[in-house]
TrEMBL record:
Its EC number is 2.1.1.220. It catalyses: adenosine(58) in tRNA + S-adenosyl-L-methionine = N(1)-methyladenosine(58) in tRNA + S-adenosyl-L-homocysteine + H(+). It is an enzyme of class 2 (transferase). Pfam families: GCD14. The keyword Ribonucleoprotein does not apply. This is tRNA (adenine(58)-N(1))-methyltransferase catalytic subunit TRM61. It comes from Ambrosiozyma monospora. Heterotetramer; composed of two copies of TRM6 and two copies of TRM61. Keywords: Methyltransferase, Nucleus, S-adenosyl-L-methionine, Transferase, tRNA processing. GO terms for molecular function: tRNA (adenine(58)-N1)-methyltransferase activity. InterPro entries: SAM-dependent_MTases_sf (IPR029063), TRM61_C (IPR049470), tRNA_MeTrfase_Gcd14 (IPR014816).
Length: 372
């Protein structure tokens, strides 16, 4: 399994992203004998082997299902184990486009952090490109190394290094011989990028324009970064901030005046029935309690029986709701969006702000022949 290619069938050891709902995705390394617990039930890893990615599986209890998705950088960003703040897709996609990263591009990225952005860079650069990623925190470096190997990111060259102190020069991972990285674009997600900027000259391309983006949460960092960029010959400096929002589009049912009348009648009916049913239930419960006390049933046992009765009552209530049929405003049987037995119109609404670690993005370019 690799983030750089697509495979169809899930095999033992593969990474599957279990889509549970909304932004809830669980990464699973398919291991026979293990299972994943969700609020929709328990799903054994074995049941996933041999299925095509994208399959929907049920928990066997008939009420819950999940989807088995093929990993992508975007889904990984939502589901990865956080070791640091991460770059989210609204920022990474914009940065990739602004830096003109394409198949074959050679990139510098530091720090690696949780590897969220590394996956997006690696997929875009593809097998013809290279991502030179640097992390100075050893446990994070080791974890990232393991993850990149497991995810088939063969185009990522990971180095354990403090780039502010020791720069970006790279060595061949097999021979340990230094080589020229010749990079097209640089992305710095560091607390003090201005200390790393002077070290870039020896690794960036000498025959074409190079782009840079520095990701900083504070405006004071931006100011210092801009000063360092100017001092080191970078031009076209521009600062941008991404504030992404979700737009929800869905169908809404057209409700007529007659529906409102139906709704009022329904409320009255339910109130009358509900009160009657509640009276009967309280009476039954009271009698049962008296009988249990008289028969010497222990307190624990009585509590358990009361809980069972409560659950049974809840089940019956849900069944009654389903049997009631559909009421456009009331409780009752659910209707699928777009059901052709009802009238609908399309609505689009601005939703919540997109999950992202809001930072200022400082972009610049270095054009070798303009260097004084
Ligand atoms: N962009 C990453 C992602 O999307 O997952 C997150 C990067 S995280 C915010 C910043 C990382 O930079 C941390 O893991 C930190 O250890 C590392 N770091 C900080 N200063 C560094 C330096 N001088 N050299 C190398 N890594 C550094």
């Amino acid at each position: 399994m690799s983030f750089l290619e697509h495979k169809t069938i899930i095999k033992e050891g593969d990474l599957v992203l279990a889509f549970i709902g909304g932004d809830n995705l669980k990464p699973i390394y398919v291991t026979p004998g293990q299972s994943v617990n969700t609020r929709y039930g328990t799903f054994s890893h074995e049941s996933m082997i041999g299925l095509p990615y994208g399959s929907q599986i049920t928990s066997g209890k008939g009420y819950g299902f999940i989807y088995l998705l093929h990993p992508t950088p975007e889904l990984w960003t939502i589901s990865l184990p956080h070791r640091t703040q991460i770059v989210y897709t609204p920022d990474s996609s914009y940065i990739i486009q602004r830096l003109n990263v394409i198949s074959g591009s050679r990139i510098i990225e530091s720090g690696t952090g949780s590897g969220s952005f590394t996956h997006a860079f690696a997929r875009t650069c593809g097998s013809k490109g290279k991502v030179f990623s640097y992390e100075f925190h050893e446990p994070r470096y080791l974890q990232a190394k393991k993850e990149f190997e497991g995810h088939g990111l063969t185009n990522v060259h990971l180095t354990h290094r403090d780039v502010c102190a020791n720069g970006f020069d790279v060595k061949d991972l097999q021979t340990n011989e230094p080589f020229y990285a010749d990079v097209d674009a640089v992305f710095l997600d560091l607390p003090s990028p201005w200390e790393a900027i002077p070290h870039l000259q020896s690794v960036i391309a000498k025959d074409r324009a190079v782009g840079i983006c520095c990701f900083s949460p504070c405006i004071e960092q931006v100011t210092k970064t801009i000063e360092a960029l100017q001092k080191n010959g970078w031009i076209d400096i521009e600062m941008t901030e991404i504030a992404g929002k979700k737009w929800d589009s869905r169908k809404e049912m057209i409700r007529e005046v007659d529906d409102a009348v139906e709704r009022l009648k329904d409320i009255q009916k339910r109130q009358a029935e509900g009160i009657e049913k509640k009276k009967v239930w309280i009476e039954m419960n009271k009698k049962q309690k008296e009988q249990d006390v008289a028969n010497g049933v222990p307190l624990d046992e009585r509590k358990r029986a009361a809980q069972e009765l409560k659950e049974e009552n809840k089940r019956k209530k849900q069944q009654t709701e389903r049997d009631y049929g559909f009421n456009p405003w009331g409780k009752g049987k659910r209707v699928m969006d777009g059901d052709e037995n009802y009238k609908w119109f399309d609505v689009s609404r601005v939703g919540s702000e997109l999950k992202s670690h809001t930072s200022y993005l400082t972009f610049a370019r270095f054009v070798p022949q303009l260097k004084k």
